[in-house]
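SEQUENCE-TO-STRUCTURE ENTRY
===========================
What this section holds: a protein sequence and its matching fold, both as plain text.
Tokens: labelled as protein backbone structure tokens, with as many entries as the chain has residues.
Question of interest: how does this chain fold, as expressed in backbone structure tokens?
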Amino acid sequence: MDEMLNLRLELIEKSGEIDFSIRKAVIDFIKNIEKKYSIEVKEENGSMLVTHLAMALSRIKKGEEIESIDEEIFQEVKTMKIYSELPEYYKLLEEQLDIFIPQSEKDYIALHVCTLIKKTNN
């Protein structure tokens, strides 16, 4: 994860939107994705994922919910191999933060991760 993404997370934390535990969980999540898929997550390809994940984890800790993703939009994501590999990473986040990630949030996270991997590998 590049320095710009670290700075992005630092700014979100300083603004009070997330706490240190969420910041660390996002960094760990990104490092795991980078290692698993042999990619480098940078500002250019990963800003949407990093920002969404941080805010999603904050919403979950606050007990806030979001609407489910449009199923039509999500169909392509479900067919990607990466989609079936993501539950192990959700589990790590849940254990690290002692939370339960609702399916609606998992779907949005999956959308961002799959988009990142697809863009990076093309």
Observations:
- The mean pLDDT is 96.
- The CA atoms of residues 39 and 121 lie 8 Å apart.
- The helical segments are 3-14, 20-37, 43-62, 71-79, 81-85, 87-97, 103-121.
- The chain has one domain: 3-121.
